[in-house]
Amino acid sequence: MRQFLAVAEALSFRKAAERLHMSQPPLSVAIRQLETELGVALFDRHSTGVSLTPAGCTYQRECLRLVTLAEQAVARTRAVAQGGAGEVRVGFISSAMIEFLPKVLVAFRAAHSGVRLKLVEGISIDVARMVELGQVDVGLLSPPVTFAAAMRQDALLSDCLVAVLPVDHPLAASPHIALSALKNEPFVSFTAARVASFHHRIVAACMEQGFEPDIVQEATQVYTILSLVAGGMGVALLPSATASLRHPGVVHVPISDASTLLRTQIDAVTLDGPIAAAARAFLDVAKAVAASAG
C-alpha cells in the first residue's frame, strides 16, 4: 500500500523510488504484482510518466482512508494507554454524591475530557460486588465491607455523624448535644439487611452510651431518611455532609461524644493489581480532591 501511494502521488516510478529510498526496478515489480493480484490496471504507463486509471483512483481513495483509520487507531490506542481516552466505570454510594463526587467529576472532566464516565449507584456491599465482578473499575464505598477477592483500598474522606432532628424538636436549637440525650427518641436508620455496617455502627454507638436505639423506620436512601425525620417519624444519625442537601424540615446538630463509632469514611476500592490508565487517572483526581477537602 505504501509503495502504491508513493507512485500515485508522484506519478513517477523514479521519483517514488527516491522517496522510498529504493531502486526503481523492485518498485515496478511490486506494482505489477499488486495489479496482478487485484486483476486490474492501476496505472497507465507512457513515455512521460504514469497516470492513474479509474480503478487506480478508486484504490488510492480507499488506501488513503485506510491509512487515516490506522493513524486514528494508533492515536486512540496511545491515548487509552496514557489515560487520555477510554472509559472509566465508577460505582458509588449515595453519600459520596452529596459533595465529594461532584467535585471529582468536574476536576476529572476538565483534565481528561476524552475519557467517558459511566456511574452506577448502589450501597456499599453492592459497589464492592460490582468491583469484584469487573462491572466497574473503581468503587466508592463506606467500610467495613468484606471482599471475596483481593482488593486495593484507599481511604479518601472521613466525616463525623451528627444528629438529624425535626425542625420543631426541643433540641433543634442546641449548638451540640450528647448522644445519650436521644435515648428516649424513636430512630430512623438505614436498613439493617442492606446497609448492615452503618446500621451496626449506630447501634454500637448508642449502646456505648448506655441505651439501645428504638429504630422504628428503616430506609436505604439518605434523602428518604431526611424526609422521614422531617415528617416526625424519629431522629437519625447521618454524616455531617448531608447538611448540604438543605432539607427544609430538619436540622443537623453536632454530637459532643468523641466516640470513633461516630465517624464514617469513604474509600476507593479497585481490584488488586494493574488497572487501566484512565481508571488510575480517576483515582489520582479523587485523591487530590479529597486532600484539598482536608
Q: Beta-strand percentage?
A: 15-25%
Largest sheet: 7 strands, mixed
Q: How many domains?
A: 3
End-to-end gap: 58 Å
CATH topology of the largest domain: D-Maltodextrin-Binding Protein, domain 2
Percent range of helical residues: 40-55%
**Gross morphology:** rod-shaped
Report on the architecture of this protein.
With 294 residues, this protein is of the alpha/beta class. The chain folds into three domains: 80 residues, Arc Repressor Mutant, subunit A, CATH 1.10.10.10; 100 residues, D-Maltodextrin-Binding Protein, domain 2 (3-Layer(aba) Sandwich), CATH 3.40.190; 107 residues, D-Maltodextrin-Binding Protein, domain 2 (3-Layer(aba) Sandwich), CATH 3.40.190. Helices cover 40% and strands 24% of the residues. It has nine helices and eleven strands. The strands form three sheets. Strands 3, 4, 5, 6, 9, 10 and 11 form a seven-stranded mixed sheet that branches. Strands 1-2 form a two-stranded antiparallel ribbon. A two-stranded parallel sheet has the order 7-8. β1 and β2 form a beta hairpin.
